[in-house]
Each structure stands twice: as C-alpha cells, then as structure tokens.
Amino acid sequence: MSQNEALFTAITKGNRKIVEEQVNACVAAGGNVVELLTGTMIPAMRTIGERFSRNEVYVPEMLIAARAMGAGLKIIEPILAKAGHKPLGKVCVGTVKGDLHDIGKNLVAMMLKGAGYEVEDLGVDCDTAKFQAAVDRGAQAVLCSALLTTTMPYMKTVTEALKGKNVKVVIGGAPVTQQYANDIGAHGYGEDANSAVKVVDALLAVGR
Ligand code: B12
User: What are the residue boundaries of the structural domains of the chain, listed by start?
Assistant: First the structure.
C-alpha cells in the first residue's frame, strides 16, 4: 500500500489546511479513500503516539495532529456512508467514562454507517447510564472504545451493567485485546474499524 507522504507529514505536524487539500485532491481524482485512511492517516496518528512515548512531542502537538486528522475524516465520512437504504440494524458507539479520545471511535461509527447500520454516536466520556439509555432506544449492539489503560476497566462496568439485556457488547481501542474481552465477558472485540463491522455482522447474524 503506497503512502501519501505530504498527507502523512501534514497530519503529524498538525497542518489542517494541507490535510484538507490532500484529502480533497484524492477524492477529486477518484482515489481510494479507505486506502488513504489505512495506509496514511491512521499510521500518521500512530507515529504521533510513538513520538509522544519518546517525549519528542507533548499533548498540544497530539491535539493539533488530532484536529488535522479530524478535518480529513470529515471529508471522507460522507463518501464512506452509503445513503438511502434500509438499515441492517441499530447500534451505538461511545468512548467510555474518563476518556476523551474519539478518533478511533469516530472511525468505527463511520465504517458501521458505511456498512449499512443506523449508528447513534454517544460521544466521549460515556457512563453506563448513557449506554443503557441507547439500549432502551433500540440499540442492538453497544460498541465501547477506550484508549487509556486507566479507562479500559470501565468497559467491564458497562458490560456488567448490560448483562441480561438483549444487547451485544463489543469493545475495542489500542490497549484492548481479545483476551480482555473474554475476561470481562464482552460479546466481541475488534482490533480496527473494519473488524468492528465483521464482529457486529456476526453477532447480529447479518449476512452479506
Ligand atoms: C491523539 C491522541 C490524544 C488526543 C485525543 C484527541 C481526540 N480527539 O481523540 C489528546 C491530546 C486529547 C490526548 C490526550 C491524552 N492522551 Co492521548 N493519544 C493520542 C494518540 C496520539 C492517537 C490516538 C488516535 O487517535 N489514534 C488513531 C486511531 C485511528 O486509532 P485508535 O484510537 O486506536 O482506534 C482504532 C482501533 O483501536 C479500533 N478501535 C478504537 N475504538 C474501538 C471501539 C470498538 C468497539 C472497536 C471494535 C474498535 C475500536 O479501531 C480504530 C480504527 O482502526 C495516542 C497514541 C496511540 N498510539 O494510540 C495517544 C495515547 C492514547 N494517549 C495517551 C495519554 C497518556 C494521554 C493523556 C493522559 C495525556 C496527558 N498527560 O494529558 C490524555 C488523556 C485525556 C483523556 N482523559 O482522555 C497514551 C495512553 C497510554 C496508556 N497506556 O494509557 C497514548 C497511547 C500515547 C502514548 N504512547 O503514551 N491524546
């Protein structure tokens, strides 16, 4: 998979204008936006995380990189979402309590919309009451995201609060593993936004 160097650098440097220009140029040329996302944009965010770990950049740099990434995602979102069909099912997505990371969660929401689900985005810092209310509004699957090892345990709280309800709990995020999902009794785990769709398809018995 080839990498768009200009876009990669623009995300890592938090240059929103160039990110928008590069993504728009790809769209205008009829390029593959999924490839742009997985081959360039997500690796750029991973690189920023590695630099943060090495103390080469700090929170403000992470934040401007995230904003630049968000601007690019905004352009891609309507292209990924196929409008005008009957939803395959209703799901909700949220980042758990105490956690403000939303890029991965937004991607998961985007991919599920694109795959034909009705998606309620609950935002960040979601407590169990928020997830429960979405289930009461008809969500058949709850997708929880966590990026911090300190907020990950809240997924157990959510899973336990929803036990006995007619809903599937799927978890994901950088520190989360299949083993952790098994340990806390979640119904599913996905390592990325594509696998989120596959896991939800399987749990809700949606055939493609
Ligand atoms: C950008 C960023 C920020 C931004 C977030 C902006 C935003 N709007 O999201 C800001 C600057 C606010 C931030 C703040 C903090 N951050 Co931060 N951040 C990151 C960074 C660099 C990138 C995260 C990201 O967007 N990745 C790109 C997306 C696409 O990947 P992703 O989120 O993993 O999502 C993918 C998969 O995980 C999966 N997925 C995600 N969710 C779900 C859910 C389901 C259901 C499924 C199936 C799949 C799935 O699919 C996604 C797409 O493929 C990471 C580094 C990293 N490597 O993750 C650190 C990182 C997560 N942050 C970290 C830290 C420490 C913090 C702070 C505590 C820093 C501080 N001292 O203040 C605060 C905490 C704030 C809070 N309460 O949440 C640490 C966490 C360490 C740990 N082990 O807990 C990391 C790992 C950096 C590091 N290397 O140390 N951060």
Answer: 5-80, 90-203
User: Residue 49: CA atoms inside 13 Å, Cβ hemisphere, count?
Assistant: 12
pLDDT of residue 208: 61
Distance from residue 62's CA to the centre of ligand 1 (Å): 9
Residue 158 exposure: Cα atoms within 13 Å on the Cβ side:
35
**Nearest of 59, 60, 134 to residue 94 by alpha carbon:** 134
Class of domain 90-203: alpha beta
Atom from ligand 1 closest to the CA of residue 102: 9
- Per-residue pLDDT tens digits for 161-170: 999 999 999 9
192 lines ligand 1 (CB under 6 A): yes
